[in-house]
Amino acid sequence: MGFRCGIVGLPNVGKSTLFNALTETQAAQAANYPFCxxxxxxxxxxxxxxxxxxxxxxxxxxxxxxxxLSFVDIAGLVRGASKGEGLGNQFLxxxxxxxxxxxxxxxFENDDIQHVDNRVDPIADAETVETELLLSDLExxxxxxxxxxxxxxxxxxxxxxxxxxxxxxxxxxREGKPARLTKPRDxxxxxxxxxxxxxxxxxxxxxxxxxxEAAAEGNAxxxxxxxxxxxxxxxxxxxxxxxxxxxxxMDIEExxxxxxxxxxxxxxxxxxxxxxxxxxxxxxxxxxxxxEARAWTVHKGSKAPEAAGTIHSDMQRGFIRAExxxxxxxxxxxxxxxxxxGGKLRQEGKEYVVQDGDVLHFKFNV
Length: 366
Prior knowledge:
Layout: E1 4-8, H1 15-28, E2 36-39, E3 42-46, H2 50-59, E4 63-65, E5 68-73, H3 88-96, E6 100-106, H4 122-152, H5 157-174, H6 187-195, E7 204-209, H7 220-231, E8 235-239, H8 241-247, H9 252-261, H10 268-279, E9 282-288, E10 292-299, H11 304-311, H12 313-317, E11 319-325, H13 327-332, H14 336-341, E12 346-348, E13 359-364
Parallel strand pairs: 1-5, 1-6, 4-10, 6-7, 7-8
Antiparallel strand pairs: 2-3, 3-5, 9-10, 11-12, 11-13
Helix pairs in contact: 1-8, 4-5, 5-6
């Protein structure tokens, strides 16, 4: 199961620096959080989760394997991308293929690094990119909604659903608001809305790239971005690309010491990865044994057979039950045997909704 976050941003905001730091740091720490290159501009990184190491220690697992996200360094954008200007078609096409947008915004002053518009204004930068997404969606829906409305008058059920939910999205776009603010009324509308693959419907994480001195608390620029994110139901994190670049190549002890000097408890990249994970509405479950402790990813609300299917399709097809232990119980009772003796190992069936941190062992027959 692949989950892809596309990194976007205007020129000279730190987008490529962050992507390079993300991939190089992960490569340097391959023992803990493996990185591999899928394409020249795609990096796959492990999601930091201290629970995994604790589970492995209790179970004396031979190795740990984290769950992963893919980050895509998307081609740069210029105004007019929605009309094909510059690399516009490539840019919009790449965004269509990702699950969420990580939008890097310049939140620092530096006379040596020229801004494409000769000013530092992260809100204006965000709006430049978002406008192109809105215009692309607007052009699409202004053709699709009238066609759906026409079919709906003839009694076509699917067209009625499409006219309703995409009509709502079209009104938002005409008001200059992103399609992700659309509120489908039921599961059918949610399905049709998702199938529309609107660019401005994708969840957004704003990454405030600040100067080193502001890495811990942010600055006036990042404060404005956090206000924007809160107003539109998006997320935001603070990162210093300069610091992340300095961390590349350091061993763990050097890194921890450097971060402590900067007043930080973890890398900004760890925050980006974790925020991206949350942005996609994902949760983690674990499989634990003597050979390995491994983290797996499913969407929140997934049932046990779906979780089994992330490991192997045969396990989903032949699912019988899931032996389930909550993470806290596994740790407190020193593993599976203790949880079983303490009455904390549960037998769950096909309707069980997986919880974050569950330690699962699937029984299946094919």
